[in-house]
Write a structure and sequence with these properties.
The protein is mainly alpha-helical and 142 residues long. It has two domains: 72 residues, no CATH class; 70 residues, no CATH class. 76% of the residues lie in helices and 4% in strands. It has seven helices and two strands; from the N terminus they run αααββαααα. Strands 1-2 form a two-stranded antiparallel ribbon. A hairpin with a 2-residue loop joins strand 1 and strand 2.
């Protein structure tokens, strides 16, 4: 990595900053998923790429980011899951399901996403982060 530019070295460091496989395995084991899905997630976490002389831990980074998003926005994720579930139920209605699904799916996803995002934004932890950012921006502009 010594012959990489500073910018490339930063990108490589960021990509390889995912959680260690041991921690990812522990988090995946705690999920309420089937053993097959857990195995697929671990296979994804083990994906690496070699670019020149540098090995990139792509899979670990993808799974780490997914867990981070789930932790930061639980209500949004839940809203999306509920929106998809209801849209699939609408799609399973005999005769009308096929006609309603193209219209209902985007609306139900948008509704679930919006309701979840509003709930996440109302969370005190999120609003305190926004206030901290606002304070930092005010100090920079002064």
């Amino acid at each position: 990595m010594s012959n990489l530019s500073d910018e490339a070295a930063t990108v490589v460091t960021e990509i390889n900053s995912g959680l260690p496989l041991r921690k990812l395995a522990a988090q995946i084991d705690r999920l309420a998923l089937s053993a097959d899905v857990k195995s697929l997630l671990m296979d994804l976490a083990r994906i690496t790429m070699k670019v020149g002389e540098v090995v990139l831990q792509i899979g670990r980074k993808i799974i780490s980011v997914a867990f981070d998003i789930i932790a930061r926005f639980p209500n949004t994720i839940f809203g999306i899951v509920i929106g998809v579930a209801v849209a699939l139920l609408v799609g399973s209605i005999p005769l009308l399901g096929g006609l309603l699904t193209p219209f209902a799916m985007p609306l139900l996803l948008a509704f679930g996403l919006t309701k979840g995002a509003i709930a996440d934004m109302a969370n005190e932890g999120w609003t305190s982060r926004i206030r901290e950012l606002e304070t930092q921006l005010v100090q920079v502009s002064v």
